[in-house]
From TrEMBL:
<feature type="compositionally biased region" description="Low complexity">
    <location>
        <begin position="12"/>
        <end position="22"/>
    </location>
</feature>
<feature type="region of interest" description="Disordered">
    <location>
        <begin position="1"/>
        <end position="69"/>
    </location>
</feature>
<feature type="compositionally biased region" description="Low complexity">
    <location>
        <begin position="42"/>
        <end position="52"/>
    </location>
</feature>
<protein>
    <submittedName>
        <fullName>Uncharacterized protein</fullName>
    </submittedName>
</protein>
<feature type="compositionally biased region" description="Basic and acidic residues">
    <location>
        <begin position="1"/>
        <end position="10"/>
    </location>
</feature>
Length: 69
């Protein structure tokens, strides 16, 4: 069979025009949304008596420490 002529390479599709990046730095000032007024902390259910320090630490600090050690 005669070799099939190579198909001409398709020219790469022209890049779609990049969307202009939003300029870094101050963007056109959007009116800042007023922060929602802080809601007073709602006590979780019945107010728990304060836990003695070492207990509450166990949840947060201790776990971090173990990863350090």
């Amino acid at each position: 069979k005669p070799e099939q002529p190579e198909k001409p390479e398709q020219p790469e599709q022209p890049n779609q025009p990049e969307q202009p990046e939003q300029p870094e730095g101050p963007q056109p000032n959007q009116p800042e949304q007023p922060e929602q007024p802080e809601q007073p902390e709602q006590p979780e259910g019945p107010v728990k008596p304060e836990q003695p320090n070492h207990l509450s630490n166990r949840g947060t600090r201790k776990t971090r420490d173990t990863s350090k050690t």
